[in-house]
Design goal:
The chain is mostly helical and 102 residues long. It contains five helices and no strands.
Length: 102
Amino acid sequence: MSPTLQGSEADCPPKNSSKEAQEALDEAIRAATRVFTGLSQILPEGHPARGVALAELGKLLCVDEPMPKDAELMGTRAETPRPGLSSPFTAYFWTRKVEAGL
């Protein structure tokens, strides 16, 4: 390997385990959900910032995969999916439902 590549590999952060990566993704989803919920409370419907926040939440939710059913056989516990957050549209309507007090 060239010295340039060797030097750049030394600067790279260590690779996360899949569990650590999933925890980081879950935290990012929770943060994006809080952002969208907060913006929905202070900005009027149709505001572009709300759309951007919903799009960002949607991108995160698209890469969030459920734990495989085989994981239980491997000794890991499958977590219950978050209700109302399976898609950005569901998250949006779930947030509206909470805002309405239903």
